[in-house]
């Protein structure tokens, strides 16, 4: 067999191998330069987020972990089809997939109850995380999440994609450029009560026979949530109706819209000091909040599309000189003096792709994403505090420095929830 | 009105209503009950699992110390143990800590791990000697839980125990102990023991420490150095 030296000597001219022979196109990203993703708990929403990873050249998705075999197979099929291979590996145990040293980052899109514990475990394994919202089940979890990502110096991007939505960015710019004048109030549309009542049920559904463990591992599905008998409605998405798994309409949309308010007004580092709940569990509801500097935050049930038809997850900024409001319809409503300053924007539906691109860019460059764990913690604590005020039906006052309510022991006792053994944060 | 470049999606329809919970699984009056009523539910043999679960949650919200014995009695219940801890964790009265500590010698498996987790959450320093034994025991799941609790307790004494055990540990347990050390260092610095916390970080910067924790420790040292802004 000829040696490498002999082959080189016999060559009549230097060989130049076109990149397409090696399977690379001009401008293609080398495999070693790609951010390698794994996924945990990917259902319908997660699959939508995954679809954005699959179109980013600088990203590669290689592994799916889920407690449901059907979902594992579905995601593997989607990924393999996109890449034209059969390389996506399937896992039932998160520790096995987290142990893979070739994976840089995880997409976590489980039910809410798993978001914080899994994100923290991923950080402990040295992984960066893109996690769907709501990111936490309690005030305690929110801070634990931020602490863990700071402790491990890992990157976290909450699924608050509107921070990368052009119409939302324009509204923020108008405030920051001073066109709206001094900030007076922020309005965050929360989940409509017809979809997610502000007070999710604390009841249980009638017990149904458990499916075989290989089809659904109920114990693993419940994870850190308190035990309850199995009912198929929970695993089909009905978990969002129940307190043990969900934070109601305030958390469901507030994790997006309160987050937008904080981001727009440079309030990512703090929370309001007062929370006044208004309404019942049926019909429109509000939580009127106030920051220490006097700025108001109004969490409001304004229907699915908002009173001005700006779309789901709308938010409004009101200054002394003008106001703007926008949402998922992409249109921007505003006071007359602001109209000349508007410009056409990319549609809000591009926000998710932009948000994932930002995360991939940050992972490659080790810079902090816009919806990082600290920002997520502050907006989520705000939502949890409002949720507690709504549950108690009384105005609560809050000390951000102590992370404690100042006028209710019961409210303070509700800042955390026990996690089912053996899970912890 | 400003127009987007692309057309808007259709608004989402209201979601279908969930199934109705049966009467025996409805919280009802328990949500407003006082401590005496909750204790009655928890100690009545005919109370259902659901009623006890809800009574535990309500007891936790009230931090009802009167309910401690009844809550402690449920710590070994496969389904209700988490609810019992839901009740016990917020109770600041020493009797809650005493009850959880007493359970350390009675429980096994996941129930025991749950109690260890709760003691860690409460930063119960009195449980440290028992937790150190557990961290050095054969049950690796329990050892990891004990390490996490010790890290949360976070003082100089437990930092020495954590380091001594970490040097012998392997795999996930070593990783858990390293994580506990990082938490312990944070707690010490927050409690004013800056030099001890920094010394722990320095020890965690050794090559034998799991990579994620090692990098975390090095980053923490840099952050701490920057935070005091000494002239150079």
What would you say this structure looks like, in words?
The complex is a heterodimer of chains A (425) and B (232). Chain A is an alpha/beta fold and 425 residues long. Chain A contains 13 helices and 15 strands. Chain A has a domain at 35-163 and 352-373: Rossmann fold. A 9-stranded mixed β-sheet of chain A has the order 13-12-11-7-10-9-8-14-15. In chain A, strands 3-2-1-4-5-6 form a 6-stranded parallel β-sheet, with helices on both faces. In chain A, α6 packs antiparallel against α12 (373-392). Chain A starts with a helix and ends in a 12-residue tail after the last helix. The relative contact order of chain A is 0.15. Chain B is 61% helix and 0% strand. The N and C termini of chain B lie far apart (57 Å). Classes of the chains: A alpha/beta (425), B mainly alpha (232). Chains A and B meet through β13 and α13 of A and α2, α4, α6, α8 and α10 of B.
CATH architecture of the domain at 35-163 and 352-373 in chain A: 3-Layer(aba) Sandwich
Strand content of chain B: under 5%
CATH topology term of the domain at 35-163 and 352-373 in chain A: Rossmann fold
E-strand count of chain B: 0
In helices, the fraction of residues of chain B equals: 55-70%
Query: How is the quaternary structure best described?
Result: heterodimer
Radius of gyration of chain B: 23 Å
- Mean of all residue-level pLDDT scores of chain B: 93
How many structurally independent domains of chain B? Answer: 2
- The CATH homologous superfamily name of the domain at 35-163 and 352-373 in chain A equals NAD(P)-binding Rossmann-like Domain
Question: pLDDT average of chain A, as an integer?
Answer: 93
Please summarize the sheet with the most strands of chain B: none
List keywords for this structure.
heterodimer, A: 425 residues, alpha/beta, Rossmann fold, nine-stranded mixed sheet, six-stranded parallel sheet, 15 strands, globular, B: 232 residues, mainly alpha, Leucine-rich Repeat Variant, 2 domains, 61% helix
